[in-house]
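Discussion board: Methods & Data

I've been asked by a reviewer to show the raw model output for two of the constructs in my manuscript, not just the figures. I'm not sure how much to include, so I'm pasting the format here to get opinions. Each protein appears as its amino acid sequence followed by a line of discrete structure tokens. Is this the kind of thing reviewers expect to see in a supplement, or should I convert it first? Here is construct A:
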Amino acid sequence: MTDHRNDSRRTRSETIAQRSVGVLCALALVLQIGCFSYLPVQSAPPLPAQQVGIVVNDRGRVLLGDRVGASVDRIDGKVISRQDGSIVVDVYRVTDLRGNTATWTGERVSIPDEAILGYRARKVSKLKTLLLVGSIVFAIVASLGQSLDLFGDELGERPGEGPQQS
């Protein structure tokens, strides 16, 4: 009977490990949501040091094709300055017309005003931030609860009452 209990515990630890991996995968998906959202397209130019998504028009796709790709839809980055009818941005992501994204590492690009359809300011999303924090707290509590047995024994692992006496 001792071997059966060891097998049951081994199975339980494997189950905990599988659940932990599942929780980590779910957490990774939640982290991809992020804590930010973009406001609708605006025509007012953003201030320096502001994180924005610059929506590119058809003329901009032609003008910027050699620098950021021919089918670019939006350029996300940090505004550095406005000078000579263009905006200078440190780019961290480019999204094409099909929705595919390419991550950049802060390369500086000058985008002429005539290439810009509008700006999408980035702001902190309270709902997404709350979901992210809640998911992390839930994962930590669930993981600690399983590993430290905070929620009690499962019914199958409780010791028996022993042999019945007559």
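Construct B, same format:
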Amino acid sequence: MPEEDKRAAGNGNLMERVVELQDELLQSQEKNLLLSAQTRELERVARDAEDMKAELTAQTLLLTDKSRENKHLHQELSRVTGVLDVKLNEVEELRAAVQELQQQLKMRESERDLLAVMLNEAENAQRRAEETYINEKDQQQNNAGWLRPFKPKK
């Protein structure tokens, strides 16, 4: 029997070893599952990082385009501002010219009014002179001649 005890003991050791190996296999499979899940998670994170990188690249290109557009707009606004400054100076010059012309017009109007008054006075004086001349002539005719007593009095 000692051989059978040795065999049984050997079988017991072998069984223990098989159970140990099965436990190690199970732990290895659990580790493998955990590592597979971690690998999938890392792959997902890597894809997300690539997507973010692509989005950042697109945003960079968009910002570059917007910067160029803003630079162009700034240049255009600077040009328009320069033109507006020139036009504003022209408007100021025109305003000064209009004011000067208005003053000249007022002077011409006052001169015209003064000349109109002088003309009216001259016409009135001429009429008075003509009336006086006519009156004097009528009186001379009335005073002269033999028909004077026969003319009706005014």
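Answer (T.O., handling editor elsewhere):
This is acceptable in a supplement if you add a one-line summary per construct. For B, something like: The mean pLDDT is 90.
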